[in-house]
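dumping this here before i forget
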Amino acid sequence: HSSKKTYRYEVLIRMGTACGCFPKKGSKSDKQPLLGHNEETGLDSAKRLVDWLSVEPPGTEPRITEDRIQDLCNLAYSDQIDRKEAAAVSFVELCQRMTQPVPEMMLPPIIKLLQSPDYEVQKPASLALTHLATRGPAQNKILIVQSGALSALIALLQSPHDDIRCNASGCITTLATLDTTKRQIAVQGAIPPLIVLIQNTDIKKHAILRNATGALLNLSHIEINRYDLHRAGASKEFMRLLSSEDEDVQFYSCAALSNLAVHSSIRIALTQEQDGLIFNALIRLLSSCSEKVSSQAAYVIRNLASADENQTKFVEHGVLPPLHALILSQQNSSIIASLAALRNLSIHPKNETAIMEGGFPDLLSDIIKDSKLPDMLNHAIGTIRNLCTQEQHETLVNQYNIPSVLAEKMGEEELRNEQVQGEITSCLAVLASYKNIRPALVALYDNKFLEVAVSWAEKGFNEVRYNTLGILGYLCESEENREQLINKTRILEVIKNFLQSPEAPYVHIGLWAIQQLLNNAADSTKQSIRNCGLELLVKRHTVNHDVKEISDMACNILKISR
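structure:
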């Protein structure tokens, strides 16, 4: 640190006396000199900067004044390289200590220095701007982009010097962390030169490759940029970089591909590139020694597996064993990412047998029992729900006792999470659709499941209420269950609340539940429905509802209730 200071002061002291001047505030050209009443020479400015920077305590916030910035501007706008170099080095010293918002009048001279053709000026100037972006508040990033610095930084991406390209790409990476700047950076043309950097296999510094890949990743976080990135060829380069030796580059590439794969048209292109090279590349990364790389690879698989055809292709390429191993890793982030991928893979009926035989039901059951993490539980329960098909549901119930596992989790007081409880009740609703499973459900909670479920439908979260009424609708097909529901619970009051909802889905499920109660019902059941005022609510939906399916269902209920 002391050697840098000595160098800076020597640079300042050895300068000549001719003066370059700072443009007037608001001037559109930086070529017009500002001739103030007390025009100072470059030497005077240099001496004042030496005195100031010498007495500023190291590590403290520098006291920026207009006069001090003017001294720097006198040097930055000089035609002499040594003065520009002195200004640039001084800006590095200041900017790396500044944590407060940068004064706007500091940015034009730094931009001027970035535009210098001289390497010894460009290097510290680009480092100074990077310090402002990384060490200062978020406001600095916005001011830097608005100041016009981007065009100079983008030009420096094509510098022949590694350290300048590294500084420029690193600064753009930081600027692109804000949603408000991402689009501006893309529009001003940063994407093509950044792609050129990640294409350059001759780059000796991995930092350049990391910075450029990181910048492109940050730009991929907003939808409109993703199409620009893909059209410019970034997708192909990200896939190539999956085999990079640098873990950070692998991670950034996976994360960017995960963002791009959100869009169906890009998903198709990714999987068609080089005969589906991406399938094996991602599966290989699931076994990476780096947790962040393996986890991010799983998220790419999750997004690509949003397409039906990719779900089977991944299984055919052997994705299940490494996913199984990743779930056993005991690393929460890896488990969540793997479960997210497995959940999408389990959607396709052709994958069910492989998943069931791959040892996953035991893992999923244990996770549901033991985990307290909502994301982990959501994906595990969602996967179980996908596997509850005509062919597999009996195995899940008889061999793995899934209804009991779900009911126990639902009863955990400390886990009052809407998404988790929504997943649980959704899964139970799928199981309730199978007649042979219904006795096992009714037997839950010491044969008090019907009463407990009615309380969920009455007081639970909205999604839980909706799902639970679906469960009860299936269960009331049994005359015994129907009588118990009507005589010992508040089921009819619950249905009335659904019919009074302003939301069509809730009205629909309420009408369906009444229809289920009335099918083959005894006269006493019909009378109970009429007595509680439900019939009047049903009549309203025959004429006052915009959804034809609802009005038709209401008319049908009135017919069968008589």
